[in-house]
Every structure is written in structure tokens, then in C-alpha cells.
Amino acid sequence: MPSQDNIVTKRPSGVRHLCLCAMLLGVALLLSYLEHLLPWELLLPLPGIRPGWAQLAVTVTYFFVGRRSAALLSATRVVIMALLFGSAMSFCFAACGAVLAFVGLLVGERLHRRCSYLGLGVLCATLHNVGQALAASVFFGATVILSYLPVLLLGGVLTGALGGVLLNLCAARLARLLTGGAKS
User: Residues near 77 by Cβ (< 8 Å), separated by ≥ 6?
Assistant: First the structure.
């Protein structure tokens, strides 16, 4: 999670805010689409483990644009991706994961000086996987699905750490870019 110095205090407003949100939604949709297209099963033959690239856009929105905008971006992305490429079941899985990942952002913000983006990425990714496992156990009526949760959590640690490292590397530049050159 960012230090207090990395959290942008000057939030965009009006048309600039709308354009930033639209751009970040486009980025989130593009990242989701790329994640959907790539054959992850060939690289890692474990179902349910994906990089979670769209969460990067949600996290950037959360810290550099605002909480409400990030929540709306996350919800809109889940709905659009389900309409374009999914089903009612995939929508429920994605929505459960997205809600718990957003809870991770809320919790992570409270820990802001004790946690980097790396820790935040791991927290959000593992919570996303918990949400999807819970949704699967409800849909399929079997708690045996929860026995796969340790594998999903390990995948969440790995993919969340990768995303967190990327955000740690890019945070200062993103702050300048998204605030129009203002210091973060």
C-alpha cells in the first residue's frame, strides 16, 4: 500500500474526473479481455488462477481518483465482461471476487503505513479467490470445493505479489500522470 506521500490528495473533478474514469474503465476492460484471451491453462494447469490484471486498474482508481469511482469501475467492468464473454454464473463468481477484493482495498487503506502495494495486491488477490470459492460452494452446493481454496490462495499470493510489485514500480509516475503533473 502506498505511504501517505503516495496517496493523491488532489482528486480530479468534473470533466477531467469523468475522462479519467472512462480511460481507467477502458484499461480495466482491455486487461480483462487480454486475460480472457490468453491460454493460462497451458502455463499453469490449475483452474481458477489468473493474473487479475484488471484489479490493477481498480487499485489505481481507488488511490488516485477515489473510492466511489473505483467501486463503480469494478462493478461496471464485471457487468460488461459478463455480458460480453460470460454467463450468469460467471457474473456471480466475478462479482463475489470483486466485492471481496474491494473490501481488501478498504482494509488495506486502513493499514496504509504498514503495507505496500505488494501487500495490498496479495490481500486483494487472496480475498478475490475466497469470494470465488464461496460462490462456487453456493452454486454447486458442495463444501468440497473449499478444499481447493489453499491452491487458490497460493495462486492469489503469487499473482497479487506480481501486481503489487508492478504498482510499486509505477505508483509515482501514475500519480503525476493522473493528477496532471501535480506532485503526489
Answer: 25, 28, 29, 32, 54, 57, 58, 98
Intra-chain end-to-end CA distance of the chain, in Å? 14
Q: Which domains does the chain have, with CATH numbers?
A: 14-178 (1.10.1760.20)
Determine the Cα angle at 52 with ends 176 and 47, to 5°.
Answer: 170
pLDDT tens sequence across 3-47: 444 444 456 678 989 999 999 999 999 999 999 898 887 887 888
Tell me, what DSSP letter sits at residue 106?
Answer: H
Q: Which residues contact 163 (CB under 8 A, 6 or more apart)?
A: 51, 52, 53, 55, 56, 59, 117, 121, 125
Tell me the three cell numbers of residue 19: 475522462
Give this prediction's pTM.
Answer: 0.88
